[in-house]
Structures are given as structure tokens and as C-alpha cells.
Amino acid sequence: MNRDARMELISDGLQAGRHEEVRRLVEEILAAGAAPEAVLDQALIPAMGVVGDRFRAGEIFLPEVLIAARAMHAGLDVLKPLLAASDTPRRGTVVIGTVRGDLHDIGKNLVAIMLEGAGFEVVDLGTDVAPDAFIDAAERAGAPLIAMSALLTTTMTEMQNVVTRVHERGLDATLKTIVGGAPLTAAFAAKIGADAWAPDAPTAVEEVVRLIGAAG
Question: Does domain 3-85 have CATH number 1.10.443.10?
Fold first, then answer.
């Protein structure tokens, strides 16, 4: 079987959520001489992109995305040690978390999964994250972007606090912010001075690509 056919099989297996098959196929294609970065760029990232497109189009739903994400992580688990050893650059680093006072994480987790699937390093701070904790983590990781989630209308104001602290600490020229969550709107994001808003996980990935490209 040629290399292109193996890449297609990995992509098909990921989209179908067959995690054990994806792990095995990644191991096999690496043993056959494929470069780890090629497997990432030609199989895993495009396949997760298809999953995101189908999710946004309403063709599949959250359970299917999570199953596909499990398969993606099975492939990444094989690739990560090799990518680290070769110092292969990723597309950038994103710090993500749910804002202070909010413990909801399903949407945030989905965005983190899809960012990883798109080739980003993700620093996931979890839930109930204070404003300065976001910024400190971004500085430690050298991340140019903070992604914030909120589900409660009462915690949306914490996003404003993060944006304000970015400005107060003199980082607004190099540190971008993106916000998301069910109660949010583009108007709210503009009002608080966030650099972007995303209504869903696939759009969040597109906006992160745009913002990190602009930051670079």
C-alpha cells in the first residue's frame, strides 16, 4: 500500500472515530518511513477539519465530534514524542479556559480539541480562571492568544476584566483575545474590546488562525 493510500485510511478512520485503527495506521506509516509532520499535516489536521465542517453544517453532532477527537488523540499520542524530538514547529500556542466564576467546560473542551486537531499547542487552564492567570499562562508559554469561554451571563463580565488586564499590563500589541459561549454575541465582544468572537468551535479555529497569523 502506498503512502497516500495510508494517509487516506488514517483520515477516514479519524472521521469515523476508530481510534485503535488510527493509532495502528499511524504507527505503520511511520514504520514505513513517513515523517511525523507529514502525518500531522496531511492526515490528522485535514481530517479534523472535515469533522469541524460537518459539525458546523449540522451533519454530525457533539458525540460524533468527541469520538473523532478521541481518534485524533490516538494518532497524536504516537506523533507527539517524535515531533518534540525533531523540534517540529506547531502553528502556534493558545491559552484557553473558562472565566472566573464559571465551571462549564463542554464548549471550551471542544474548542481545545479542535485547536489541537488543527495543529496548535493548547494550554488548557480548565474552569474558574482568574484574569491574571490567563495572562500569566500566556506569558509563560509564549502564547500570542487567549481564548475565553463563559456560559453564564453573570460571568461574561470577567471577559472584560481579562481584556482590561491585558491592556493594563501593556500586552495588547502582542496578546490577542477571543471569546465564546452561548450567551455571547459579536456586539458584546466588540464592546469589551476582544479581538474576535466565535459562535462555534469551527469558527473559533478559523479566528485563531487569522489572529495568530496577524500576530506573527
Answer: no
